[in-house]
Amino acid sequence: QATIRLRQEAIDKEKALVKYAREYIQMGDECLRVGMKDAAMRNYEKAVALCPKFKEAWTKIKKLEKEIRKP
């Protein structure tokens, strides 16, 4: 019983972290839309801090890094 409960709590925690990470990605996208690249990067970084396996956030970070490096 306790093991099942702990597993469910872990699943619920992971779902919450993914939800929060998605919100940070949305905020990053909005920042990027209005030209706030540094703020966008910080939001994407917060997303991966919450959910390191979140490929969408890593993709956005890499893309934005390339964009920022352009002369």
Model description:
- There is one protein chain.
- The mean pLDDT is 93.
- This protein has 71 residues and is mostly helical.
- The chain is built from 3 helices and no strands.
- Helix 2 packs antiparallel against helix 3.
Structural category: mainly alpha
Radius of gyration equals: 15 Å
Alpha-carbon distance between the termini? 59 Å
The helix tally amounts to 3
- Main pleated-sheet profile: none
Hey, roughly how much beta strand do the residues contain? under 5%
Helix content: over 70%
Oligomer: single chain
Shape: elongated
Overall mean pLDDT score?
93
Give the SSE string. Answer: HHH
Strands, total number = 0
